[in-house]
Amino acid sequence: NYVIFNGNIIERSEANVDIEDRGYQFGDGVYEVIRVYNSKMFTATEHLERIILSAKKIGMELTYTVNEMKELLTQLITKNSLEHGTIYMQFSRGVAPRNHPYPPSDVAHSFVAYTKEVARPLANLENGVKAILKEDIRWLLCDIKSLNLLGNVMAKQEAVSQGCYEAIQHRGEVVTEGSSSNISIIKDGTLYTHPASNLILNGITRRKMIEVCEKDGIPVVEEPFSLNDLNTADEVFLSSTTSEITPIVQINEKQVGEGVPGVLTKRIQGLFDAAIE
Ligand code: PDD
After folding, report:
1. Which of 102, 117, 132 represents a domain boundary (last residue)?
2. Are 127 and 228 part of one and the same domain?
3. N or C: less crowded end of the chain, CB within 10 Å?
4. Is the pLDDT of residue 158 over 90?
5. How far is the CA of 30 from the centre of ligand 1 (A)?
6. Cβ atoms of residues 146 and 153 within 8 Å
7. The domain boundary residue, chosen from 73, 92, 117
8. pLDDT tens-digit readout, 79-120
9. 36 lines ligand 1 (CB under 6 A)
10. In this predicted structure, what is the pLDDT of residue 277?
């Protein structure tokens, strides 16, 4: 099993993180999760452009181009004979004596990537999942895919401890996103999802979903929607790289619609499947 460590492909057992890596001490860095289907990365360009942008937003100028990263990741997929799975990759601001200000700009970023075999979540796609509601207590730069995930982790844990798959977060009355996914609702044949702003991660799956809906003539409204809209929605689903388009059939104690995946959700799943192939 091989990993990318600071630009080289090495055995995982040879990779060592320094105890003063800023990613480790401050969560000072950015990451991506990319899906691999049939040994090929799905929407790689979008993910790699996003990590460059996330880095830029925290004052890190990555030294790799999209194509250089693509090249390395493709080599890693081949080396690990990965067919269906994910790539996790992250850049931290590097290794320096612990001190809050950024280290000098000649300190090299730490770049790590590894692969994992993951099957498509067929049972969840078919049957849907349950979710809880959770006040969104995270910071105000949720558009950055940063290593600081404590708010997300705590929200997810609360969902899991209640036997649920996801926590649907809201700031007051406004629904933002899941702990590791974006949230959309269907009302009277129209899809509503929170606009790309500082309050959510602009998911690549979300963008693909909007693209296939618009092509198929399903109206999409990128506007904030309320808890009341969520509670009275015909259909609710989440989207992410690993969960794809997963129906949400129950929120807290209340069924969504008939308590089974909705008609339009299934249609969007089909459109998404076609985009994968
Ligand atoms: N999570 N919102 C948050 C907070 C996320 O962490 C994610 C992805 C998404 C969906 O983004 P995308 O469609 O680009 O995967 C939305 C990844 C998969 C993770 O942290 O594992």
Report:
1. 117
2. yes
3. C
4. yes
5. 12
6. no
7. 117
8. 999 999 999 999 999 999 999 999 999 999 999 999 999 999
9. no
10. 79
| Strand-pair partners of 90 | 31, 112
User: Residues 107, 212: one domain?
Assistant: no
Question: Separation of 240 CA from ligand 1 center, angstroms?
Answer: 5
Structure tokens at 129: 């999942």
* 252 Rama sector, left if φ>0, alpha if ψ -120 to 50, beta otherwise: left
Ligand 1 in reach of 90 Cβ (< 6 A): no
What does the alpha-carbon distance between residue 84 and residue 116 come to, in Å, rounded to a whole number?
8
Domain count, the chain: 2
Closest by CA to 62, choosing from 41, 92, 32, is 92
Say whether 116 is catalytic. Answer: no
Take atom 4 of ligand 1 and give the residue whose Cα is closest: 180
The finding on whether 206 has its CB within 6 A of some atom of ligand 1 is: yes
What was the pLDDT predicted at 200?
A: 98
Q: Which of 40, 79, 116, 145 is catalytic?
A: 145
Domain span at 111: 2-117
Q: Is the pLDDT assigned to residue 162 strictly greater than 90?
A: yes
